[in-house]
Every structure is written in structure tokens, then in C-alpha cells.
Design a protein that fits this description.
Layout (H helix, E strand, L loop, with lengths): L7 E7 L5 E6 L2 H10 L14 E8 L2 H12 L3 H9 L2 H8 L7 H7 L1
Antiparallel strand pairs: 1-2, 1-3
């Protein structure tokens, strides 16, 4: 990585109320500090401080980071906790579709 190449981060914070906040930044240290300081009373983390950084992934391309952030925002707390723990087997289990149109349900009905 060259010194002028920017790095982008997708991060997960665990809030004081045990909820999770997923964010994107190019300056992780500064962004975490702004969450801790509570600069924006309208932000999700403002009333849920202190926050703890529990996961961060870096990207070289901002579009890839934003896409990953959007994906994580749709995940359940259980799935985020599996990611934080690095438990890929559990992520796979939690990712399986469990509704009526699930491909596994269709196989059983054949």
C-alpha cells in the first residue's frame, strides 16, 4: 500500500445498551472519538455511550466498503455477533433462508 492510498473502514460499535451501530469512515480513530464524545445529539450512539469498537474491516475501495456496510446493516444482532467472534459456520447457519419460499423447504415438499 502506498502512503497516498486511502483506506476505508467498516466498523461495528457495541453500545452501552448492548445494541450495535455499523458505520463507515476513512479515519477510524477520529470517527470512534466523535462517537465517544457525543458531538451530535441526533445520532444513534449519542444516548448509548460509552461505545466500544468490536469489529473493523478495511477496504481500499470506498464502494466496496459502503456495500459491505449496507449488507451488515441488514444483519440481525446474532449474525453480527457471529461476525465479531469470527464464527463463519454460525454466520452460514444464520444466513439460511427460513421462509416458505426457501429452496430447502421446496426440496422437502417435492
Amino acid at each position: 500500500m502506498t502512503s497516498n492510498q486511502k483506506t476505508y473502514y467498516v466498523y461495528i460499535l457495541k453500545c452501552a445498551d448492548n445494541s450495535y451501530y455499523t458505520g463507515f469512515t476513512s479515519d477510524l480513530e477520529h470517527r470512534i472519538a466523535t462517537h465517544q464524545e457525543g458531538r451530535d445529539p441526533d445520532s444513534y450512539t449519542y444516548s448509548r455511550r460509552p461505545v466500544e469498537l468490536v469489529y473493523a474491516e478495511y477496504f481500499m475501495e470506498p464502494k466496496a466498503a459502503i456495500s459491505f456496510k449496507k449488507q451488515l446493516k441488514g444483519w440481525s444482532s446474532a449474525k453480527k455477533e457471529a461476525l465479531i467472534a469470527g464464527n463463519w459456520d454460525k454466520i452460514k447457519i444464520l444466513a439460511k433462508c427460513k421462509n416458505k419460499t426457501s429452496h430447502e423447504k421446496l426440496k422437502k415438499d417435492d
